[in-house]
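Our preliminary data section would be incomplete without showing what the modeling component actually yields. Below, a chain of 371 amino acids is followed by its predicted structure, encoded as tokens that our downstream tools consume directly.
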Amino acid sequence: MHKDRSETLHYQNRLAFSSIALLLLYALSIYTAPFTTRGWILLYRPAIGLWMVLRFPYWWQERAARTCVNWVIAGTALLVFIMGFTAIQWTGKAAVFASITDHFPRWQDFAAWPGGFNPNEWAGAAAWIAPALFALIRYRVVTGWRAAGTTILFAALTALLFLSQSLSGIAGASIGVMFALVPLSRLRWAMAAGGALLLIGNLAVLLAPTQSADVLAAVSGRPSVHSLEHRAVMWERANHMLADHPWTGVGIALYRSLRAEYPTPGYEHVLLPHPHNEALQFATDLGIPGLIVFGWIVLSVGLTARRVMTTGSRRHGAMAAALCAGLLSHAVFGLTDAIPIWDRFAILGWGMLALLAAVERAATAHGSSPD
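Predicted structure:
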């Protein structure tokens, strides 16, 4: 019993502690930011996320609660599809498929999501879910009618993701699916490669934003896409904020507000909600400490998944692999776009962290049980 408890505490140190550190940094930022923020109101979503990370592992051990959580997961994936099918703003680059999307229902004035969703915003949410669904099928975590339903939902989300024409979302989902094609026995190497990709990509954006945008334009095969040029401008603006306020950042969600202090050529009268890179989002919100905690969370995910794969059953490893496929997919999306931690879709990312913590606790109990 003592061993089981110590193992449980060890797992909490991986994901719960890094999440607590992030929330504490955000709380501290309310008082240390050089500009006035909106205060505590922006922390309610991260607070809910932290609560999920702390509580899901204990619920997961109870069969009735686990069944309930499984249905919530399925319902959430279906809800994200419904959101995309009915409420994406099919404008700009997404308008190329207007002959198809014009026949979709329009629920953009629905009270739960007034105004609908920007295609890139929705694509970031789909990037979390679609590769995870694929991995559940690939590793046979779901079988029978559940596998059939998961396959249909994966195909529907992938089709909508393509229609959105979000290059960030499509790239992320593609990487996530490729990750899930790796055999379970070799996934630890794939996780290491994914971590290296994220580190190199984020460092490139931070240190050489213009050159990074040029490389991405060449790799995408669409060098005329102006959105990549625009991202270089957004990244440079974020770097200026970080250079001016390295230890505090400018404050929670203030990237969008500081137009006069940090003008962006070509965007003088356009609201830029975030720097279109999730590492830079943490940096502009919280400074270098935010970047450190962001890296800590990413490292915690990798170490947690590795522990599951070495101590748990094959099913535990497959579930961790599915969650990692979704998290990696969204992290690749986050190289050139962002869903800030206080945004409405961020709860999906928190949910995946919470589920990974739950799977680790189950795997730890499995590894500690007598033969």
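The chain has a mean pLDDT of 90. The radius of gyration is 20 Å. Preliminary results of this kind motivate Aim 1 of the renewal.
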